[in-house]
Amino acid sequence: MSASKESYAARIQRKVMKKQYLVDVAMGRRKADLVLKNATYVNVFSNELCQGDIAVAKGQIVGMGNYDGEQEIDVSGKIVCPGFIDAHIHLESSLAAPKEFARAVVPHGTTTVITDPHEITNVMGTDGIDYMLQATEGLPIDVRFMLPSCVPATPLDEAGANLDYRAIDSFYDHGRVQGLAEMMNFPGVMGGDKEVLEKIIAAQAHHKKIDGHAPGIEGKDLAAYVAVGVYSDHECSDTEDAMRKIRNGQFIMVRDGTAARNLEGLVDLLKQPYYDRCMFCTDDKHPSDLLEKGHIDYIIKKAIGYGVDPIVAVKVASHNTARYFALNNRGAIAPGYLADFAIIDNFENFNVEMVFKKGIMTCKNGEVQPFEAPVIEGYLDERAHDTFHVAHLSAKDFHDERPRGVIGLVAGEIISTDNGYATEIDLEKDILKIAVIERHKNTGHIGLGYIQGYGLKTGAVATSISHDSHNIIVVGTNEEDMAFAVNRIVENRGGITVVDGGKVLGDVVLEIAGLMTDDDLVTINDKLENAKEQAFELGVARGIDPFMTLSFMSLPVIPTLRLTTRGVIDVIKQQYV
Amino acid sequence: MSASKESYAARIQRKVMKKQYLVDVAMGRRKADLVLKNATYVNVFSNELCQGDIAVAKGQIVGMGNYDGEQEIDVSGKIVCPGFIDAHIHLESSLAAPKEFARAVVPHGTTTVITDPHEITNVMGTDGIDYMLQATEGLPIDVRFMLPSCVPATPLDEAGANLDYRAIDSFYDHGRVQGLAEMMNFPGVMGGDKEVLEKIIAAQAHHKKIDGHAPGIEGKDLAAYVAVGVYSDHECSDTEDAMRKIRNGQFIMVRDGTAARNLEGLVDLLKQPYYDRCMFCTDDKHPSDLLEKGHIDYIIKKAIGYGVDPIVAVKVASHNTARYFALNNRGAIAPGYLADFAIIDNFENFNVEMVFKKGIMTCKNGEVQPFEAPVIEGYLDERAHDTFHVAHLSAKDFHDERPRGVIGLVAGEIISTDNGYATEIDLEKDILKIAVIERHKNTGHIGLGYIQGYGLKTGAVATSISHDSHNIIVVGTNEEDMAFAVNRIVENRGGITVVDGGKVLGDVVLEIAGLMTDDDLVTINDKLENAKEQAFELGVARGIDPFMTLSFMSLPVIPTLRLTTRGVIDVIKQQYV
Description:
Two copies of one chain form a homodimer. Chain A is α/β, with parallel strands linked by helices.
C-alpha cells in the first residue's frame, strides 16, 4: 500500500506497532535485530567514551547496556562513532554518478551528505534537482539537498536555466530537502535585491535553513546578511573572519576539500567552547582526492593531528551538523537515533573498519556491500544524456581578427591577471586562443579571447565543466584543433578531451549533463590522469591543473579577467574589454 | 486584510518589503526604530561580553556596531541579556489569570514561557487549552504551549475530561504550540501502552517536541523512554540521575520553582561542557514565591552564587531553551533575532532594570508598561466561569459510620503514611475527616476518609485546587462546616475557603475554572496569606502549608495513602482500603 493512501489514523496505528516493537527490544523483552557487543562509543552529549552493548531495532538505536541480538558483532577494542556527515558538497565535483560517489565515501564512514546540486541545475534547471533526487534514492548514504540559490550564478552567465523562487518552491516539500543552498549573491542581499530576498523568504516560509557563502564580509554588510536569515558560512579561511560570523550568530562550516583547504586556518575554533557552532564540509572533492585522502574521516584525522580533542572532532563531524540541519534523529549514539555508525580502530590511526547505515552493514574493511542502483525515470535519464545543443563547429568559428583581452594565469591560484590585448596566437609568448561555446540552447554564442601562461605547445584542450554555467571551454594552439575538441565533447555528450592534429589523445566522457559519468571512481581517475598526462606532454605547465584551471576561467566573479560566451570581461569593472 | 486571505505570492512580496527595510537599517541607510546605545551585551555564541550599539527594526535586532535610531536609549554601564525563558511551567500555579501572571514576571526579564495547561485542561478539556491560548494572545510575554499529555493524570482520577491523541491533534497546527507536555505516564511507555504511544507518535507526526517527566528511571526503562522519543526531563534532583539522562540524549530542564527546588542539586551540570543540554524551568510558581523571589532571574542569580559562569547561566536561561524548542529567532543578541532584552545592572546584584519584548519597552525599574488585556470569546469565558456542577450539600452527605483509612501527614513532605483506620473524628488524636467531592459532572461521588497531623481544632478548610483533577477537597472538625465550606466554594465558582461555625473567615475566589482569578497577584497573595493565617488560628500546624498540603492529597500517584472521589487508596498497592 502506498503511504499516500494511508489515513492519518492508520499511520498512527502502524507506528504504534513499530514503537511497541522498539519498546520491547529496549526493555529486553525481545532480542534486538543487531547488537554491537562490548562497544566503546563516542557519547556526543557527555563528551566522553562510554562502554556497553549497542542494541539496534528497525534501523534505530534502542538502548546501550546489556543486550542480546539476532545478530551480534563483537566490537571490543574498537571505537564506535556516529556516522559522519558532510555539511556541504556539490556531488557533481566527484565526476561520478551519485551511486559511485556513495561507493567511494562509504568506506570512509560517511553516512549522510548535504549536497547542493548547483552544477547540474545550471545545466538542466529543476530537472537537474529531480535527477539528483532520484539518483540518490536508497543509496547506502543518505543524501540530503539544499536547493541551488543562484542559477545562473551571475546575470552575465548563459546557463541552462534561470530559476526564481517560484521555480524551486515545490521542492521544499520533498522529504530530503533541507533548505536553500549557499546564497553567494551577498551583494544582492546588501542591496536589498528583490529576487534574492524572495528566495530567502520562501525558504523561511517553509521553515528551512539558508546556507551562506560570503568570504570576508564584516560590519554592516555582515549584519544585513545575517539579519535576513543566512545561517551559516563555509568560506572562512581564518579565525578572524570566522569569529566575526560566530559573534553575529552564524554557524561555520569548516571546509577542507579539493579546491579549498581551510581546516588549518580554522582549527583553533575547535579548541574553544564555541566549537558547537562548527561543522565539517568539503564543498568539492575530485576523484584523486577522494581516492587518496578520504572524506570527512580525513578531516577528523587531520584535526586530531592539530591537537583537537578527538571527541570534539567526531562531534563536529556528526552531531553538530545534524543539529544544524534539524536532522534530529542522527549524529549521536543514543536511543531513538538512527543506527548510523563508523567503527574505527583508534583515534590515532583513525582507520574506518566497519560502517553501518540504519543498522545495515554497508562496508567492512574497505569493502562496500553490494546495493541496488537507484532507478531514474526515463524522461529524466534521457534529458540528462542530452544536454548539448551545439551545431557542428569548424575552424572558422574560432577565427577572429579583432584584438581580444589576454587572461594571465597565476600558477597555483584561481585568480588571473590582465595581460593586455592580442590579435593572434603567439606560441613564443605562450599566448593561446581560448573560447567559451554556449552549449545549452544552440544560440551560436562563442566568446573569444587569449590566455597566457597555460603552456600548451600543440593541439587543444577542452572541457564541459566550466563554472557555473558549464558551457564548453577550449584552449588551443590552432583553430582546427579547437573546433575538433569541441565537436568531440559534443559527440561524447560531455567531458574533457585533449587533442592534437585531429587525433584524440585523452578523453574523459561525462555523459550525465556533461558533468558526471556512470563509471566507477577508479576508472574515472585513471582516465583523468591519462588525459592530464597527455595535456602535460602537449606542453601544459606542470604547476597547474590543466582542466580545473580551465573550469574556473569562465566564472565571472573571480578577478581579474574571465571569458564568458560574450567575450573577455573585466570582473572588477564588470565590463567587457 | 486577514493573513488567511493572502496568497502565497502576496505574502512573499509583503515580506520582501519588510526585509528591504531591515536591510536598509542594517546597512545604515535608514535609521533604526530603536538603538540601545553603548551596550555591553551577552554574546551566547562566543560566550563573552561584547560592546556596541544594538539596532532594532520592526521588532528584530538587525545589527550591532555603530547605529543611529529614531529612539535611542543609552545603556552604558549595564548588561544587556537576551530575554529569559521558562522552559516548563503550569501558568495556573500562580492562581492568576495569564495577563496578571505576565504583569508579575515581566519585571524579572521574562519574555517567553512554555506552559503546559495541564490543570485547566483537566477541568475544561480542550476548551481549557483554547481558553489559555486566547488568554495569552498579545501579552508582553510570549506564551508557548505544550499540550497536556495525561488528562486525566491516572485512570483512577475523575477529571473534567478524558483526552486521547485525536482530541488534542488539531492544536499542533496552532502557531504557539510547540509539542506534547511532560509524558508522566512513563510506566505506560515501558509497557508499550497504545494510548500513550499514540500521543507520542502524533506529536512526532507534527514534528513537535515531547517533554518528559520520569524521576529516577534508569537502565532499560530509560532506554525505552528515550527511544520512543521523549526528549527532556525536568524531574532530576541529583547529577547522577541527570547524567544518566544526558548520556542517553535527553535535555535536562533544571527546575527551581515553588514545590521543587533542584538547582542546588544540579548546579554542577552547569560547570561542565554539557551545560548546553540544560535549561531552566520553574514547573510551578505560587504567588508569594513570584512576588518575593522572582522568576528565571532568581534562578540565574542563584546559579551565579553557586559559582556558575554568569554568561553560561544567562545562556542556559535563554539560548538553550530557545534552541531546544526550535524557537530559532530568540534567545540571543544577534541580527535576525527578536529584540527581547532583559537589561540588568550587573551580574552580582542581577537587578533587572529594563525589559523589552520585540523592541518595545515592557518594563522600566519594575514598572510594567500598560498593555491591553486579551479578548476571550464569550463562549469560552462563560465556560471557564461555570465549571462547578455539584448539588447543594448538607452535613449528612459527609456522615459515615464505616471505618475509613487514616492518611498520615508528614511535615514538609508531600508523601503520606498509612495510619490505619478510624470511624469518627477524634480531635484529641488530631484525626479529622477529609472528603473529595466530584465537581465536574454532578455525579454525586464523594470519597470519605480521615487525616492525621493537620492540626485543625475547629471549623473546616476546603479548596478546588486538588491535583490533577481539581475536584473539591475539604478537611473538617465537623460535618456541618465541611458542607458549608464546599457549598461556599461552589457559590464562589472555585477557590479556597476557611470556615468556622457557619462563618467564612478567609476566602480566595478562583472563578476561572476554580484555579485562577482576574485579580492582580498582590491582591491574590494578600487574600491567600489572610486565609492561611485564619487556618493557622483554627489550629492548622504552622509547619505545613494548609492549602498546598490538601492540593496534593487527592493525587493517587504519590505514596502512601491518597483520597479520590471513590475513597482512600493505597497508592503502592493501587487498591482502595
